[in-house]
Amino acid sequence: MLKNLANAGLFQLGWFACVLGGNSPWLLLAAGALLVHLLFISRSLAEVRLVVVVCVLGSTVDSLLLNADVFAFKQPGILIPFWLMLLWALLAITLNHCLAWTAKPWWRAVLLGAIGGPLSYYAGQRLGAVQFPLGLWPTLAGLSLLWAGLFTVLVAVAARLRPVAQQSYILRASFIWQTAMADFTTTSSECRTTRTQPRSYGSCYEGLYTCVHQHFHT
Length: 218
What we know:
mainly alpha, about 75% helix, 8 helices
């Protein structure tokens, strides 16, 4: 929980540094937020790969939109500004952490993408970081449709590149819980079979904690 809160805080810090600072020394703050995450919250090669993949994919999509005159930035060019590329990298570090809840069921990713994506660009437009040559509402409507699918793809990529150790822990925790429940069910059945006094049932239910504790420490 604390790591997810820290992850969300680092993303917000980086977002404001990128959008308000643009290509300025403020980007050092955003880069620092990214570095803190990779060094202290999720130290894995898989997380680095995820950052690279999301950054390349997102920068490509936004650069295509830029050349289609959907976006307009202060800096001319065929590629989006560096601060927006860094913002994609910051988004990547949230996918397996504070936004991990969007992975299942799939409609969560679709819903968050359809709403959160356009809102982020709208906030950037209001702060003067980007302009919409095609108009506000047509642009937001198009971004909503695009991000409904794009964010779902990003979540799928994150699941694909999730660290093996993290996947193994989740599977192990599930196995431990199922085993502990089976042991607890057996113990409860024995209590009922032997007609244990009602006040003794408390010890049977306390067995659930014991089972889980023992399996986690084996």
